[in-house]
Design a protein that fits this description.
The protein is an alpha/beta fold. The chain has helices at 4-11, 42-58, 80-86, 104-107, 119-133, 178-187, 199-204, 215-218, 248-251, 256-264, 268-291, 301-310, 312-324, 329-342, and strands spanning 29-35, 63-68, 91-94, 142-149, 153-157, 172-175, 190-193, 210-214, 229-232, 241-247, 295-298.
């Protein structure tokens, strides 16, 4: 649950001056926010719904953000970016892996062992990197409300515990994107792409042997009921990215004073606050996993180093792909390392 400190932090997020704007009857601007997530998930209850409310309050009622969870406006999660670009919706909440190839630069942040281990530090690192390297390509035409990271992710398996690199062999593991899938292959397992709502059943039926996913998501989806072993290297294996994006075309409809309202509740500061929310869920998920009688396996630093060595070709492949796309892949990779270190990465 969201604690009082987080609630107060979000309630007061960047709305001091704009919050005094006078309401002028019916909303002057109505924006549609489309999300694949459940209305009861923290993505809505602690972020999107609250953000929409704050924007309405801060604008004095002149902006109304209509929130549509669970793909209520139609389509599949993979369609969200196209809906944004086509003007069907004004704001989306998505993850890079849903639109293969579209946010490959951002997916560099999801490569294994390039994470800080905490969302509150990885989230501002993600924003800093994306705005520096991707504003003129992947994010062209987009007003970034926030790019934030999940809490740390690890490997969860149903029957076979993973203790060493060799234990990956022969396993089928669910992944959420191309590059973490490439890493799974490098570690010796076979990646499988399954939409999040279908993962529980796939695990229960033995269609996959496990998954790579962050701690926080395991509790609401009750994954601890079907995955009995949870293997975590120091700092986690990686951290996924989550994108809250607004069409620049929609943003540019606003007059300067209302752009200020959006600006005041977006960017690095919002990403950091979202990071605090995600981190607040980690321990509860761990406690629920322990209460289920499951085994949490802590990988040693020496064993982690073996895993890091195994995924080196994945780094090279990502660098080569960025270079093929006309970017300086090596410089981007080096900056991911530098920025995450500046935000607390030690591994």
């Amino acid at each position: 649950m969201l604690n009082r400190r987080n609630m107060l932090a979000l309630a007061g997020a960047g709305v001091a001056a704009p919050g005094m704007l006078r309401a002028q009857g019916a909303p002057q601007f109505t924006f549609r926010l489309h999300s694949f997530s459940s209305p009861t998930a923290l993505d809505h209850t602690m972020h999107l719904d609250r953000w929409a409310e704050r924007i309405g309050t801060a604008s004095g009622g002149r902006i109304k953000v209509e929130v549509y969870p669970g793909m209520q406006l139609g389509g599949q999660p993979r369609d969200l970016v196209q809906q944004l670009e086509d003007g069907v919706v004004d704001i989306i909440w998505t993850v890079p892996g849903f639109t293969p190839g579209r946010f490959m630069g951002i997916e560099g942040l999801e490569l294994p062992f390039l994470n800080t281990g905490r969302s509150i530090s990885q989230s501002p690192a993600a924003m800093e990197y994306a705005l520096k390297h991707l504003a003129d390509n992947e994010l062209r035409g987009i007003k970034v409300i926030a790019i934030n990271a999940t809490d740390r992710a690890l490997v969860h398996t149903t029957r076979k515990p993973i203790r060493t690199l060799e234990d990956f062999r022969g396993l089928r593991l669910r992944v959420a994107g191309r590059w973490i899938g490439e890493a799974v292959t490098a570690l010796g397992a076979t990646p499988q792409g399954i939409a999040l709502p279908g993962v529980y059943e796939a695990l229960a039926r033995g269609q996959v042997d496990g998954m790579l996913i962050n701690w926080a998501i395991t509790q609401p989806y009750r994954f601890y009921e079907v995955a009995k072993f949870h293997t975590e290297p120091p700092g986690g294996l990686f951290q996924g990215c989550i994108l809250t994006l607004m069409s620049m075309r929609s943003y540019n409809r606003l007059p300067a004073d209302l752009k200020t309202v959006i600006d005041a509740d977006s960017g690095v500061a919002l990403s950091r606050r979202l990071g605090e929310i995600w981190d607040s869920q980690t321990q509860g998920a761990i406690d629920a996993t322990k209460a289920a009688g499951n085994e949490i396996i802590e990988v040693s630093a020496a064993e982690k180093a073996r895993w890091q060595q195994a995924v080196q070709p994945v780094y090279l492949a990502w660098i080569a792909e960025m270079t093929r796309r006309g970017r300086n892949g090596q410089a981007m990779f080096d900056d991911i390392q530098a920025i995450t270190r500046s935000h607390g990465r030690t591994g």
